[in-house]
Sequence to fold (1030 residues):
Amino acid sequence: MATLICVLLRHNSRILKLPPYLSFLCIVIGVAWLLLLPLDNYSRRTYISENALLPGQVHTYFAGSDQNVFRGYKQEVDALEGKANLEVNDRLEEFFKAAGLKVARQHYEYKSAGETYSGENVYAILHAPRGDATEAIVLVGAWKNIEGELNRSGVALVLTLARYFKRWSLWSKDIIFLVTADSKAGPQAWVDAYHDTHQSPAIESLPLKSGALQGAVVIDYPFNHRFESLHIVYDGINGQLPNLDLLNTVVSIASGQMGIGVSLQQMWHHSDTYKDRLQTMLRGMLNQGLGHASGPHSSFIPYHVDAITLQPFGEGWQDEMAMGRVIESAFRSLNNLLEHLHQSFFFYLLMHAGRFVSIGTYLPSAMLVATNFTIMAIFLWVKSGSPQFSDTKVAATIEAEKASPLTVIRDGDANALVPEAALAVRERELFLSLAVVAASQFLGFIPLYIFNHTSKALLPVVFIAFSIANYLLPYLASDLLVRFFKPTTQQYQLIKTFSLLLLGMFLSSLATLNFSLAFLVGLLATPLTYIQPFPGRPLTTTLLSLLINLLAPPTVLLAGAYYWNLNVGNILQEAAFGWDVWGMNTQVVVWCVWWPAWLAGGILLYGKP
Amino acid sequence: MGIDRRKAGLFGAAAAIRLLLFTSFPGLPDLMTARVEISTPVTSFKRLQEGLFLYNHNVSPYDGGVYHQAPLLLPLFSLLPSSATYPAFTYLLYILVDLLSANALMKIADSGEAGSSKHYASPRKDKKWSSLAIAAAFLLNPFTIATCIGRPTSVFTTCAILHAISKAVVGSSFTSAFAISFAAYLSMYPILLFPPLVLLCYDRRPPSKQSESLTAFVLGNMVAVGGSIYSLLHMSSLITGSWEFLPSTYGVQLLLPDLTPNVGLWWYFFIEMFDSFRSFFLGVFWLHLSSYVGGLTIRVRRQPLFVLTIILGIFAIFKPYPSISDTSLFLAMLSLYKHIFPLMRYTFLVSSTVLYATLLGPAFYYLWIYAGSGNANFFYAITLVWSLGLSLLVSDSLYAVLRDEWEVERPEMKGKEIRQI
Fold:
């Protein structure tokens, strides 16, 4: 039976024609699946899983005379604007000490792309009156927010809240108030040092520590006036997300208890229509896929500390005290936690502050896109092993059968006459194809190294040089291959098999870690499924070469930079910074997963079997 | 001379790759050492350092309950400069051990035992890889390289096993017996290789010993193995000053007190198991592992080298603390059997399964341990897939060899489908 099926599969020309359509179907379904997600039937309303959180169940007392304290601190912060980091920290240390907290400082220095990023973090610990210093929550206010503006109201609010929290005796977890020098390097240095994974001596160890971090909330409030609603930023490094419960808690406190609107992913006006939901989801996916830090909270997430950034925005009638009350209430909820946040989802796509899809619902779309490569790889493997048939001679099979000796296959009562040649498996010449695929994988390390180790000034030049080399490389490599090894059709098929197999494998593994990146790369690489040498059809070859060059990693980077109006040099500098400081892995995926597959595709396209 | 130059080139390249990885990525050796796929409680380099520290401070290395490896490794490593200050010496030692293993593998390949043993010559025996290609497949295998970078002590066992086999194929039974005793001394389970190994020695014994009967030959070898193991153990007791190393080394292998995750199947079972059943299932698991030896040795009597290969594959799946180093040894031995590859049915499936598991394993381990968004079942599911892939490979290669033998007995059935009646 097995042989019969095998023969059928291998030599039935109809079944052999099926896989390309099947893999195309996979792509179409994968994309359509994603587009269905914002509909009411496929997404769910968010809900609080962890009952201990009890969001919005407490009365908040942050009001009244504390507003005067806040104004006082704000004036002090304004007075410190433009002063040196050390001077600022001296003053902040005084304030924390005056509130009766233990204060410590940490100096750090990172080097990336020829630039030095240094500064000093200052933090204060409020020891829990009812706790044993085994757990802590962090309130962060970066001195400069992610855009580089002075976080004037944010830092003032942190100082006010430190003073205010100190008065309460109900804390069962330590509270750490952290003021970092900037929003990118500072939080990373602090979290690394808190978990003793920092690179000393460039980054100092923390002189003062508390217990295991249970959560972190960042205030990013750079302006003076009142605000309308709250923007929550939740993306972590490498696409990791905080537990959905933390986000739900803040959403329910802000909108339920305080009556402040909440928005996500810079969707300032969300009307909860299909279009807006889709846009929110796609922006979320793009942020997740890029894997960069979107705020000071991002650095906490890799350490399994759930964290979010709260950014007030717009012109409205909510004042800084309302913001303070949101944070007070959120901290009261976190204070209730009996164990680490674990009940709710870690893998989700949000399309509205109150709607999400969980991994079980959305994962199939990326997996289908990745599967399309695997299907094609299996198909080509079978095809490369089957004896060469001339597909056009279907009508002449009887003739062909006469020419070759027949053999009888018996299966139970059934007999079948099959040409003997059909049973044989063609010997596959693996070596050359394996070597080509291995070489293109290896070549991927070169751009990875170059772009992470070039100084800032040279990055644009290097990028241009690399792009030109990149467009010529497939052609040259293919030409060399033809000249020295004269690959056969089978060898080309095998190159494609291995390259697609690897791509499918990498992407399906990646989909479990960073869904969005796997999906985006998979989508951009879909043409590679159908690339093969087209000897004697120069027009097709030219059109396809245009297409794959349009979808080459450097072109996509350029297009992205053009669309969002960014400087390529800055993007590359940020990427190098992410690699050196945050431990961002997006580059590895681009240069060691996507680019080698693209290169193999290019080699195939210009091949002459 | 041409061959030698190519061999030197290959060995040089393999050593260069390893040195490059060791030196150009300073964080890599420690990263690999911490990987559960490479380091198990009974082979970990980190634990060796701990044992070494205690040993150098005249404390019994087994006191901390961390070190579970053979005592004789300690004087060897304390002769080397400390790996913390001069890591280069350790690197060179491990590279050398890999090259010695490859050298032994080449000798096995050169003997042609895989294609034609004393009692059986495969009709496909001409289709084989050169010994150089086989050594290259071993030395350039990413699993072997990763193992070398992670520096577990299992590489010494691998080297000893390969030497035992390479001595057996030239018929020097006493050297082979000593090598297998050394392997068994280091990690105990290789003693199960003794029956096929002694048969291999017997088949390949030199003309001067042709008259010896099988029983006498086996007895002689048993005495040799027993004697060498005893002297190794005695030496160990002299070094550590007592016999307390026995429960800490072989006891740990037998009773599985350390349930650190690894690529094998034991840890999860024994985490889940109620204590009252523990000893029963320990017995069952060990019985299962050792039961293959007798059956396979008798069934594939005509090809003892293949029995060794298959048993090494079974070890890589079913032993208490397996790692990818066992897999790399199995794959290296399997590459001697290129002539049966065309008879195998699931090569593509197996290689895809193993590759998928290789990628998904670290990903799921990361989700479980670091990201905290997964749990132990994630990693265990992947080790199941990994073991499934390997057991498919083992059973498929066994099928291919049996089919190869069968086609010699029944030439008329060549190329036809077989069916169970």
Notes: The mean pLDDT of chain B is 90. Residues 144 and 281 of chain B are 32 Å apart (CA to CA).
